[in-house]
Amino acid sequence: MSIQIMVIEDEELLLKAIVKKLTIHNFETISCTSAEQALDYMESLEKNPDAIWLDYHLKGMNGLEFIEKVKENTKWANIPIVVVSNSAGDETVKTVLALGADKYLLKAKYKLEDVIAIVQELIKK
Residue 102 belongs to what domain range? Predict the structure, then answer.
């Protein structure tokens, strides 16, 4: 049974690179370019994704609002969320983690392979 990761990233080239790398590592992916699209998609899924890879800075609904919506819904509340972003002020990181995200990673500090390994570890827990 394959592991399904929902990737929410509004930069299309980066989204394609993430999806390609996840596919190479035998993950099934759901690609979304906005938080709103991701929520709509999650409503229609029979099975929750095994994890969510979330860009913090999105057009429209941002990462904080998305996490709040996911954690408010009892059906989705236990899905691991890894926030991957270009910026990470201390307060933002604390807020994101307090809302229920499992990890907050700076894009500049991690290779895609590293993030994939972190997501795999979260799913195993």
Answer: 3-124
Q: Tens digit of pLDDT for each residue in 60-109?
A: 898 899 999 999 999 999 999 999 888 767 888 888 899 999 999 887 78
Mean pLDDT taken over the chain: 90
Tokens representing 51? 């994890």
Q: How many domains does the chain have?
A: 1
Per-residue confidence (pLDDT) for residue 1, from 0 to 100: 60
CATH code where residue 8 lies: 3.40.50.2300
